[in-house]
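Need a sequence for this fold. Nothing fancy.
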């Protein structure tokens, strides 16, 4: 059942688990994530990033999700991940997305705040929830989200409080030391900063850069208020690795078999994360 992301995250916040947000950009990723959620009876977020407009347009994503979800009983949201272009935000809303992330984190604070507030006004009038980001993550290895020149700027708890008050966003993505992609060295995740943000901000908090983050860190983040965790890189790395292995053993495989194998491997890796996030029913 396709729902607004706000309702998924409020329940997660109350019951102290995190909803996984997995990037989708093809039939196989949509099918794999939805089938896994249904099998585990866990709520889930399908996250389509602006960069994947090269793969699919908004209308195609929406209709593929609608038909793939015909027999899905668990609640899920169709979310626009990391979007910098306001026009794309409005296109996604028109196409039926139930949630959008406006990413103005690279802009000066006041501009990010003003644009986010504008997005919230339009989105809320259409029953769509909004996530925004304060602070900035660096890009690790194999990341599709950012570039090596991205700087790490931790979220300022006081600024977070003001930002949420003035924009009325439904969820806030925070920067506490995770990276997009795989970590180059030892991860240094600042649970202390997360605790300070949680003490000031009441909306659900979001952790980007889930891939490669140690399990005990993920658990500590959930305990301290993270309700949504984004995972992209590791789903792709795991699936490609398993496909290579499969092809090594079955070099005459038909493309249709590879499509089914892809779904199987995506389900496996997504299931591992859902289990860790504690959202399974
Ligand atoms: P990873 O690629 O590190 O899992 O991050 C995904 C993400 O944050 C998508 O918004």
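Here you go.
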């Amino acid at each position: 059942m396709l729902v607004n992301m706000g309702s998924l995250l409020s329940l997660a916040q109350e019951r102290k688990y995190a909803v996984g947000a997995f990037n989708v950009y093809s039939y196989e990723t949509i099918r794999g994530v939805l089938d896994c959620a249904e099998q585990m009876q866990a709520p889930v977020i399908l996250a389509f990033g602006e960069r994947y407009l090269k793969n699919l347009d908004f209308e195609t994503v929406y209709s593929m999700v609608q038909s793939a979800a015909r027999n899905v009983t668990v609640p899920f949201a169709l979310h626009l991940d990391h979007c910098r272009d306001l026009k794309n935000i409005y296109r996604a809303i028109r196409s039926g997305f139930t949630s959008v992330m406006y990413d103005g984190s690279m802009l000066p604070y006041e501009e990010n705040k003003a644009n986010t507030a504008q997005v919230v006004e339009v989105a809320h009038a259409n029953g769509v929830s909004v996530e925004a980001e304060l602070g900035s993550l660096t890009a690790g290895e194999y990341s599709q989200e950012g570039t090596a020149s991205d700087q790490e700027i931790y979220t300022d708890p006081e600024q977070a409080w003001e930002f949420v008050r003035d924009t009325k966003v439904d969820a806030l993505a925070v920067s506490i030391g995770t990276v997009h992609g795989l970590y180059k060295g030892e991860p240094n995740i600042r649970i202390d900063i997360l605790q300070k943000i949680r003490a000031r901000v009441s909306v659900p908090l979001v952790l980007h850069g889930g891939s490669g983050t140690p399990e005990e860190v993920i658990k500590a983040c959930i305990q301290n208020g993270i309700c949504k965790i984004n995972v992209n890189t590791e789903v792709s790395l795991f699936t490609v690795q398993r496909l290579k292995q499969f092809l090594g053993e079955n070099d005459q495989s038909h493309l249709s078999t590879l499509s089914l194998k892809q779904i199987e491997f995506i389900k496996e890796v997504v299931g591992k994360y859902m289990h860790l996030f504690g959202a399974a029913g």
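For context: The mean pLDDT is 96.
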